[in-house]
Amino acid sequence: MAADADRSSIEIKVLLKNLDPHKASLKHKDRLRRLNKFRNYVTAKPPPEFYDDDFSLLLLGSESPTAMEDEELENMDLVGLLRAAGTPSSDHKDSLKRSARPTISLLRYLCLEFEATSTNANNILGELNGFAAAFCALNVPQLRTVRYDIHIGKGDNESGSRGGSKDDACHLLALLLARHTDTDYETPKPLKMKDFLPDPSSQAEFETWLGENAGPDVRRAIKENLAASDGGGTGSGFGGGDMSTAVGGGGGGGGGERAMPSFDGSEDDDDEGEVEEEDDDVVGMFGKKGSPDKAAVVSQPKKKKKSSSQSDPLGGGTSAGPVGGNPTRWAQTQMAAEKERASGALFLEEEREKARAERQKADEEKRRLLGRDPLGIAKGQFSLQDIENNREYYINLTLEEIEQEIEAELAQVGPDSESVSFLDGQRQALLKIMEEKEGGDGKDWPSVLPTHPEFDPMLFLTLVHRNATYQELDESTSRLSRKTDNQVERLQNLVRDNFALFIKCSEGIDIFSEQSDNSSSDQGLEKLNRRFGTLDGLAQSCSDQARKSFKPLLDNTNEVRKVQSALAVLQRVAPLLQVPSLMRQHIENANFSSVVKAYRKVLVIDQNHCDVDLLRYVRDKAGEAAQDARSDLELILADETSSPESLIDAIRDLGELIELLEEEDAKGGATPRSSRNANSGMKPGTFTIDRQVICVRDYPPALACLFLQTTHFRSLVDKAISSTEATADRAFRGEGPDGAATPSRNSSSGVDSEGENSSSQRTRDKRWKFEVLEARADATLRAVALAKNWLPRLLQIGLATQEAEKRRMARHRRKKMALLTSSTSSSLSDDARDKDTNTSAHDVFKSIVSPALRRLVEHVAYCSLGCANQGSEHKLVATFGRSSADRLRAVLKSPLPPTQTSKCALDLAELSEAIEDAIRSLGDDTEGTKVTYVSPLEKCSELTNNALVMIEQRVCIYSFDACARKCSISASGSGVFDGDALLQCVQKLSDDLTRSEECCKEIEKGCLLVSQKCCEGLSSYVRDRSDAARLRVVAECADALNTAIADVVKEVSFLTNEQTETLESNLSSVISALEREMFEVFLESVKRNVASCARLGLIENPPDDPKARKAEESASFPPYLAASFLTIVRCRAQVERALRDLRRSEGTTYQFLALRTASDGVVENICVELKAKLMHIRAQANTYEIHLQFLISTLKKYLSDDILSLASDTRRMLLSASTGGRGAGRGMGHGPEGLTALEDLERQGRVYMMCLAE
Questions:
Q1: For 60-109, what is each residue's pLDDT tens digit?
Q2: What is the pLDDT of residue 506?
Q3: Residue 1198, exposed/middle/buried by CB under 10 A (0-12, 13-18, 19+)?
Q4: What is the pLDDT of residues 424-458, one digit of tens each?
Q5: How many CA atoms lie within 13 A of 511 on its CB side?
Q6: Nearest alpha-carbon partner for 745 in 767, 760, 766
Q7: Following DSSP, what letter does each residue of 757-784 receive, concatenated?
Q8: How far apart are CA 1038 and CA 1040, in angstroms?
Q9: Would residue 1149 be called left, alpha or beta, if left means φ above 0 and alpha means ψ between -120 and 50 degrees?
Q10: CA-based angle 66:70:75, to the nearest 5?
């Protein structure tokens, strides 16, 4: 139990050190990790044990009485769970630190769930454990540090983790309101809710929680306590119990003799009986029998009340025996009286020794207290006694300082300053003290010692803490008041616990004082002497007569006593006699720790000086059992199937057992032999593993276990490599897993046989290759499983060996210190022998584990990779197959297929992680040393990382190659740019890769490969297809550039830690090239369609009649304009259906570009044709000028600058032609007729204008 409780104390101190929120080196994750570690410790089964002082230390930290009274903890800043659960956040107002939430969760577990079963967990009204009792006994200021208002008001709400935990805070507050007690842990002391929840909203939240989660009994208890706290309380205070019960409750507990009745059989009156019983109880409370002297003194008042007829026939007082004067009890004889007097003297001597020890302890405590500042302000070396002895010197020194300060103040602010008046008041007070000292005798001179009757607080503060700040004095006063309260509480608890004893002692002292006053001391002494003399004579005569009369009876009684004594001896040594059988039972049950404990019990028998044959036989049998247990423990250490926990336990038990056996050898005792037959010709404890002979007894247990297990590991590595080579050879020879040849098929005809044999040969060639590749993947999996299983195992044993080495080095240092005082040749030889066999765990790891693990890692790399990547600086070592056939070596050195490569990559990642964990664990043990630590597994880790990088590069290549094939098929068949497939591929790699930064080149090349394959597939898709297919490709490319490529680049940047800066530009260039190519082809097609549609057609001469010509012009919309507008509308509909409102990388929509191309083509073709046919249309030039003006105004926002310039030139040409000829339409475009014709065109072409609108 003590070891368990000591470990609990260490765990608590480590936790409280790591909860300090003001320590810059501690981060949130450090505090959270320490909280989780302590929670795992207390939730273990069975639960750990704690000292009583640890409860308050864990809750309050440095503010607990335990920390204040302990010199070691007094200078440490320990943050208790209460303060850690309510630590405010430095960056967020009215919020808590993030660690407050797990802290209050741990506090709730300790108070309500620790040591509780599943049925009574969170039971507020049940029996309280130590943490809950200590928690409920704290005062209100200490409990307020949890900040229940923030936990309940903001917990689990808008503040998230910074608002704390509402449920945990409500559980703890309900526990306080229902079960709070005084510091005695018993007296109920109800609390008020507003002391913790001043805000009404928080109170409402807590009441709502009570209604939903608390039982009716808990709510009733809380309601009653709240009513009691408002009404003054219902608990009984100190001394409020029944006085009669307190006084009479201790009767019957003493060991003293009761007063004997009178000789005539009459009893005393009730009062006298009560007084005598109380007397006996008082004596009995100290565990001491009353002496005859004291009995005589007490019986004096009785004698006065008895009649004269009952006087003592021996001449003094009442008789001590029946009529006749002979004693009838052993307590009434002279020998009993002498024995009682002797025991009384011994008791008094022991009491005096105890008193001297207590006085010495009190003096030491007083000296220790005088060596510290009572207020705790002064640090370092401090002696209050020195200041007391040199008060006059320190007063004069203080006066000088005050004079200097007054002069400085006068020089700065003048004589009317308040500081000058204050300093002058201090000087006058000190001068008055010095005058009283000089005028008087110095006996009543004020003291600075708090324990002195003439203690002067003002003098103490002036001499000791004159320069202290108000804040320091306020904090020290609060700390001192807490100490005083604790002392008063302990004193009250002491009186309360022993109140009945105080009452009895007081009454007993009063009785003794009354009886001693009623009789004279000289007369009482003479009477006692006469009575003792008479009793001695009677005792002698009775003794002679009894020897004559009762000799046979006495002889029989002596025999019975001898038998009883022998039985008592056997009963007393029965546990020792049972030790050999118990040890055998524990050995059968493999409970070797109990074997060591039992053997330690039997070592109390001194084998060299013991004359009892039975005990010597027991000792021999126990030694044989101990040797058998040692052999069994050595077998466990040498067993490769033993669990790490059993190995650690076996190392501990074997070390303790060997220490006990070596102590016996040092004492000169014979070494016990094992009851089992020893191996012929072999030293005990010798094992052979893979032709390696190891003797366990040549090394310490931990080192021997490490040797054995590392040898097993090396043997398993060799077996794994040889097994892989044998499997590959069998597959190459065409044999099955059991070594049997694969049966061949027989054919009836020669031609069929030849054809089937050739086909079977090709099939077998493929099959053995697949089997070899599968064997390599299986070998990788088995090798990684071997490393993952054995590395933690060897690591635990190695750490245990290092701890054993530290203990052995400490023993060596102690031995050297002993040799400095008394050196012997044997000790020197032992020390030299220990030095010769001093092999460390680091040496074992370096010489055995590291080479074996390196070979295993090389085997894993060779099986999973086969060969190094092209251009890689690292070369792979072939661990097997060097002498195999060329075809088999070629398959062994070839890369694995993609599926098997992915599996092996995961296995290699697990192997790398296991090795890194082992290196960290080995390095953690050397923290704090100045020597740079180089792990013996560093080379293995480097080799594993190189292999992991190469295989993950292959995984990237395989993944992108498969994705490229899939995307190419989808693009060529459906005309879809599958950017989601590329994104999913990158996301899958993000989940699978562990060395993504080293694979950034492969990732970038893979993304480019997929994009190129998609573009090639889209190019093949549009081949021999219409413009709709090209527009679809353009839409796919635009979507990819706007969405998919951005997501891919973002994911790749996150995966490679932003090491692919050119990826986005490369992908955009590949896709943009295809998009530009497809859209330009579409625009060329648009130009061709426009050129075929935008034609003037047949030109006829207009009629001569102006009215007829005007009616003809306004009858219908010109056909060539209708055809041109239809071509433009068709182009718009086609682009809009395929590309919607997508924009190019320059920011212009595809629809605008298509409309511009179509509009430019229409206007350009019409203008060219008008210029070409000017001579034929001169009579209708005015009409065509109006048509051209309508066309320009309708398509102006889509026309380019060059086309607008061409249209303007053509229009001027038409105007010139119309004004220079003959006819009624001359100049129509500049007059009302022209406007009318333009309006007619707009009315007739309204449909086309609506189609071209936005």
A1: 888 888 877 777 777 777 888 888 888 888 777 778 888 888 898 998 98
A2: 78
A3: buried
A4: 787 788 887 777 766 655 556 788 777 777 788 88
A5: 26
A6: 760
A7: HHHHHHHHHHHHHHHHHHHHHHHHHHHH
A8: 5
A9: beta
A10: 110
Write out pLDDT tens, residues 685-721.
Answer: 888 887 888 888 888 898 889 889 899 999 999 999 9
Residue type, 1056: T
Q: Is the pLDDT of residue 46 over 60?
A: yes
DSSP 622-660: HHHHHHHHHHHHHHHHH-TTS-HHHHHHHHHHHHHHHHH
Instruction: Identify the sign of the CA torsion 88, 92, 93, 95.
Output: negative
| CA–CA gap between residue 408 and residue 416 (Å, rounded) | 13
Chain mean pLDDT for the chain:
76
SS3 117: coil
Tokens 């040898």 label which residue?
711
Distances (CA, A) of 1126 to 1026, 1081, 1155, 1162, 1249: 19, 21, 12, 11, 11
Q: Do 138 and 59 meet the contact criterion of CB atoms below 8 Å apart?
A: yes
- The whole-angstrom separation of Cα 732 and Cα 433 is 110
Identify the weakest region by mean pLDDT among 166-175, 333-342, 405-414, 729-738.
333-342
Spatial CA neighbour of 1078 closest among 1141, 1150, 1182: 1150
Residue 260, token pair as written in the block? 């004997």
Answer for the pair 278, 504: CB distance below 8 angstroms, yes or no. yes
Provide the whole-model pTM.
Answer: 0.50
Contact assessment for residue 607 and residue 659, using Cβ atoms and an 8 Å cutoff = no
Q: Is the Cβ–Cβ distance between 295 and 318 less than 8 Å?
A: no
Contact between 1234 and 1186 under an 8 Å Cβ cutoff? The reply is yes
Contact 745, 868 (CB under 8 A): no
Instruction: Name the range with the highest mean pLDDT among 341-350, 727-736, 1003-1012, 1193-1202.
Output: 1003-1012
Question: What residue type is 203 in one-letter code?
Answer: Q
Q: Which residues of 205-224 are buried (b: 16+ CB within 10 A; e: fewer)?
A: bbbebbeeebeeebeebbee
Q: At what angle do helices 1027-1039 and 1063-1093 cross, to 10 degrees?
A: 150
Range with the poorest average pLDDT among 14-23, 193-202, 469-478, 1142-1151: 1142-1151
Distance spanning both ends of the chain, measured CA to CA = 89
Strand intervals (E) in 677-776: 686-689, 692-695
What is the average per-residue pLDDT within 606-632? 84
* Contact of 1171 with 1104, CB cutoff 8 Å: no
* Class of residue 1181 by CB neighbours under 10 A (exposed 0-12, middle 13-18, buried 19+): buried
**Which 8-state DSSP code applies to residue 1225?**
T
**CA atoms of 28 and 1217, how far apart (whole Å):** 91
Q: Which two structure tokens, joined as six digits, stand for 438?
A: 């000089």
The alpha-carbon radius of gyration of the chain (Å, integer) is: 53
Dihedral angle, C-alpha 1012, 1018, 1020, 1024, nearest 10 °: -150
Query: Residues 59, 62, 64, 69: what is their CA dihedral angle, to the nearest 10 degrees?
Result: 150
The tokens describing 83, both together, are 């303060």
Using N-to-C axis directions, what is the helix angle for 613-638 and 592-602, rounded to 10°? 150
- Categorize the per-residue pLDDT at 526 as very low, low, confident or very high, splitting at 50, 70 and 90: confident
What is the C-alpha separation between 429 and 399, in angstroms, rounded?
Answer: 10
Dihedral over alpha carbons 571, 572, 578, 583 (to 10 degrees): 160
- CB neighbour list of residue 948: distance below 8 Å, 6 or more residues apart: 905, 908, 909, 912, 994, 995
Q: What is the pLDDT of residues 1127-1166, one digit of tens each?
A: 888 887 877 777 766 666 566 787 788 788 888 888 888 8
Q: Is the pLDDT of residue 479 over 80?
A: no
Tell me which amino acid residue 760 is.
S
Q: In angstroms, rounded to a whole number, what is the distance separating the alpha carbons of residues 923 and 896?
A: 36
What mean pLDDT do residues 293-307 have?
Answer: 36
